[in-house]
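We close this part of the discussion by returning to an individual protein. The encoding preserves chain order, so positions in sequence and tokens coincide. The sequence in question and its structure tokens are set out directly beneath this paragraph:

===
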Amino acid sequence: MLTVAVQTLRTRWVSFLGTVVALVLGVAQIAAMGLLLATVLDLPDRPAERFAHAPAVVLPTDPAWDPAHHDLGVRSLPAAKGVSPRLLREVSAAGKPGDTVVDRAFYAQLAGGGDKDQVGHPWPVARFGGYTLTDGAAPATDREIVVAAGQARTGDKVTVLTAADGVGRYTVSGTVPPVEWENAVFFTDTEAARLAPRVNALVTLGPADSIRAVTGNQPTGTKAAVLTGRERHLADASAERDREALDNTATLVPVMASVAGTTAVFVVASTFAFAVVQRRREIALLRTVGATPRQVRRMIRNEALLVGAAASGVGTVLGLYGARWLADLLIGMGVSPPWFQVEPSLRPTVVAPLAAAFLVGLVVALCGAVAASRRAARIRPAEALGEASVDDAGMTPARRLLGVTGGICGIGLTAWIAVRSPGTVLSPNTYVVSLLVPVLVAAVLAPLAVGPLTRLLMWPFRRLAGPTAMLVRESVLTSRRRTAATAAPVLLTVGLTLSLFAATDSIGTARDNGPQQKVSSPYGLAPDGTPGISPRVVAKVARVDGVRIAAPVLTTVYTRDENRIEENDALAVDTAALKDMLKLRVTHGSLGDADPNSMVVPDRWGIPVGTRVQVLMADGTEAALRVSATYRALSGEDVAYLPPRFAGTGQYARDGLARRAYISLKPGTDPATATAAIGRAVAGTGARLTTTDALAASESTYTRQLTEVRQRSTAVIILLFCFVAILNTLLMATADRRRDLTVLRLTGATPRQVVRFFLAESLVTVAVGVTLALLASAVNLAGLWIALLQLFGTAPIVVPYAEMVAVAAASTLLAVAGTLLPVGAALRTRRGGAPDPKAEDAART
């Protein structure tokens, strides 16, 4: 039957064209996503920057620490502590005098500095990053600095913002060429030690083996690694930023791959099955001339193998270019770093995804063809011609079982998330995939819904004059399989985009309006061109009469759990001030019971009020803190509140800056006078006075950006594929109906009436798809409504009507184009659309 399959493809290649297009695009999509994932897992080595000219770098680290298993910005305990005095002494003793250079990295910014990393260093370490003086001299006194050319000129007196001093005045003693990775300010070694006591790393000029012997003998908690070669990049600040960007990529791409891949496989399989169903008459004729069911199945499998191999080969090539386009798209959206590229090569990380996509294309083609071939092969020769001329209901027992099972699982999953695990909706990786289930189930059960929906949709037109409405209604009802197949891409397009867009907007709105985000203070401080607010600036504002201020500083609390050290986010802040300014949903205890030796923790941690917890701060200090209260927190927002004496320690010890501050006025204070005084106090300090509403809006924009990028970029990929699927499926379905067109012409229909009939039928098909999409999305949004109600106490379901109308309109236009193009071509093949004599004979038969 292989020869028959080859001859069939040669003579009926037009019938397989739609299947080939769907398979090529599906394989290309899977290959592109696989390449992106493989690239994330096998990144190229990045060159060293700040230590490119250093023989070796000693960096405090924990060999068992895998940053991929921890939150962004959290460092191991040795890395957070920095180089200990003992390690500094032993490394210095292992080499010659002067062979060890201390490196410190801390927040230091010229007023009005650029948007690159604003960082201060001691001058002696500058040469290892390739810095050389282009003008002036090295800083000789503690009030002199060296900056990049273009930021200031030699001899200028400039303002430098730091965490330790807030605002300081320095004289520029020299300049160095600017670099891409940072805007550096170089101080004397003494001044740098005063501004930042913590030592980040050591540059050693001695033998690396001797230094490794020293670092290997350090006690637990003070371990360090000796970095040489390309490993020196791990000591660069950009290594952490790269990890953050790649973490966003690694989080986004699997979601996109799972949703888009599932959609592609479903559409390709259904398209191939539909192509086989369209040939039921041809297969039935083979049965009448003696072909056995096994031969029919073998022929269709061979056709699927040939089509799948050719289409998958083209798809893998397109997938390689598609992966590069997607990488550029992610870079343009700010998700991936600029150097993230997909390059063609023979490496396993490139070959494996392409080979996997090729195999997926073959398997999907075979599965889609085999399922339909079994139904066609069961036709008896005696009834083959009669059976081939009538479409069936399209619901096999297997499909019915799959649809019912999927419906139960989909509703059950939605209910479980809504009632038992509402926090799942805040996790894009999990929740986006769960949105697929009701939509795919609706597509599987579509043939069952075609009849009732068609009768409902056509009911308003039952009294229209003329036979068009009746013909359209009966045509759809007697061709439910074809209608369901052509409505499926519309269902997927509208259903998935509606669920994704509405979920994104609803969750964002609920976060903005939820009680966890309610701030009772009327004013706040926000960074103004700086990464944060200095403690010195907070102290200046606190000295203004009638003003109370709370400025949480993000830090890390380390706790010992048996033989492991676990880390948790924390905010160091005056708890008494916090009580008046931020409405925490306290579940046990009271914020009023807080003291300098207590902390407030989320109830998710499961620590009872009154318990004393031994905590370890990143600077090495230990404290036994009593839990004075617990509060209800959302996933990702469960931080502990510590006394202000811990501000400046932990993961942000490099800068010790507050990301925001809340300000309230004491009773009797004149708001105009107080705000004017606050404005004078923060002038030129890198902070600005704002209202809490504006502060919350800016924070909401920041926190929602990545989530929106994730879900909307996923929706864009789905839209592009489904739009092509809509056009492709309608072209296949309409092009195969030349006999229906001839029957209409034989009964006296004019070309205009024929076009009107096919157009009305395509609109009914689109309406069926949109209706099913709304029903499936309603299940998703009902579950989301219940989950948000539990999480936030408010559940605004925000439907982006403008976007959804645009998507539905685009789907309708593509469906109309997919209908009118083949109908118009068929009408033009005969003079003025006259019936084809050969088709007349077939129609009469």
Remarks:
- The mean pLDDT is 78.
- The two ends are 29 Å apart (CA to CA).
- The chain is about 55% helix and 15% strand.
- The longest helix spans residues 692-735.
